[in-house]
Design brief:
Strand order of the largest sheet: 3-2-1-4
Largest sheet: 4 strands, mixed
Strand content: 15-25%
Number of helices: 7
Distance between the termini: 48 Å
Shape: flat
Number of domains: 3
Structural class: alpha+beta
Helix content: 40-55%
């Protein structure tokens, strides 16, 4: 199949007077391909003439589901990878003749759906401190300005600390967190920062 650039070079060489055999030698295509490029006004895109008949994975879903169900009880090092599941399906016992990618995609979707993602809403005391910046407007003698405020909140007790900061740079953040921990007289196990 010719690329657009090859197509343009062939048409330019023909316009300059080069013969079909010479173009075939120079561009590395058969004379039939060169003639076709000269006959068409522009390259024709490839179209699939008949649909590909790939083996369906559907009949094997139950087997894959059973393997994944058994894996939930097994230690993590002994669980099947998608390649191991594919090899088991290709064994004469199951007789799967399809490709690996179908199995890999199905197993990936199945594992993604089964994965539980959550953020706990119940927190132990002193475990987590959440920090973020807010903004307030302050009236100064030379006019109104927006001032960043460091806000910290304990997840368990919802106790809050706020401190106006000169900037939102690292030095100001660290100084504000030191002041917050001195105010609370405690250091959290985790510090969660809200990043936008």
């Amino acid at each position: 199949m010719l690329t657009v650039n090859e197509f343009a070079r062939i048409r330019k060489a023909h316009r300059d007077g080069m013969g079909i055999r010479a173009m075939a030698r120079q561009f590395g295509h058969s004379p039939k391909t060169i003639r076709k490029a000269l006959a068409d006004a522009e390259p024709t895109p490839y179209t699939l003439k008949q649909p590909r008949s790939a083996p369906k994975l559907g009949p094997f879903h139950a087997v894959i589901e059973q393997i994944l169900l058994d894996d939930e009880q097994a230690p993590s090092k002994q669980r099947h990878t998608a390649m191991q599941i594919y090899r088991r399906l290709c064994d004469p016992e199951h007789g799967y003749t399809g490709g690996y990618d179908q199995v890999r995609r199905y197993v990936g979707r199945r594992r993604e759906a089964a994965r539980q993602t959550f953020i706990p809403l119940a927190h132990d005391p002193g475990r987590r401190l959440e920090a973020d910046f807010g903004h307030i407007y302050v009236d100064y003698p030379d006019g109104r300005r927006q001032v960043p405020v460091l806000l910290t909140t304990w997840s368990y007790s919802q106790a809050k600390f706020a401190m106006a900061m000169p900037t939102e740079r690292t030095e100001a953040i660290l100084a504000g967190l030191v002041e917050a921990m001195a105010f609370f007289q405690a250091v959290p196990h985790e510090l969660w920062w809200d990043i936008r």
